[in-house]
Design goal:
single chain; 156 residues; alpha+beta; six-stranded antiparallel sheet; two-stranded antiparallel sheet; 4 helices; 8 strands; globular
Length: 156
């Protein structure tokens, strides 16, 4: 998993509880229904924090239930926690460096990942396939969207 770059100026940090911090100025992405993904820390580990509106509680709870079912597979993103505060639900997830779409569309931004994939594309495809196979064995994940396939640091 990628490590957060530390900014040179003070950043507003939202503490959800003693274990989860959200770095609100480091937005990593957006999703449907007002979902925003921020950089954060879970028990001092860099994470991605998905913030969803509380009005989508059922969707968030289903997502975290599914993530707990698939947790601890090398080729599936790791789930850490779901917490609530105010109008939002916060889901702490493994922080990945890029999505498949990012690497394919902007290889110069993710040079190490793009080069690792170019050197051993079969390995990359096997990892994606193993993750999908695991999800399908649990009756989860009918399709693969390129922005949902995530990459961590290349392993030598």
């Amino acid at each position: 998993a990628a490590v957060c770059n530390q900014p040179q100026y003070p950043v507003p940090i939202l503490r959800i509880d003693e274990s989860l911090e959200v770095i609100q100025e480091q937005q990593l992405g957006t999703g449907s229904n007002g979902t925003v993904v921020f950089a954060g820390k879970w028990q001092d580990r860099p994470v991605a924090v998905k913030r969803m509106l509380r009005s989508f509680y059922d969707i968030a709870s289903r997502e975290t239930r599914l993530l707990r079912e698939v947790d601890r597979h090398d080729n599936v993103i790791q789930y850490y926690a779901q917490l609530e505060r105010g109008d939002f639900i916060y889901i702490a997830l493994e922080l990945c460096e890029a999505s498949l779409a990012d690497v394919v569309e902007k290889p110069s931004h993710f040079r190490a990942l793009a080069e690792a994939g170019s050197k051993d594309p079969l390995r990359v495809l096997k990892q994606i396939t193993r993750g999908l196979d695991h999800l399908h064995s649990l009756q989860i994940g009918k399709t693969l969207l390129s922005h949902l396939a995530l990459f961590g640091q290349p392993v030598a």
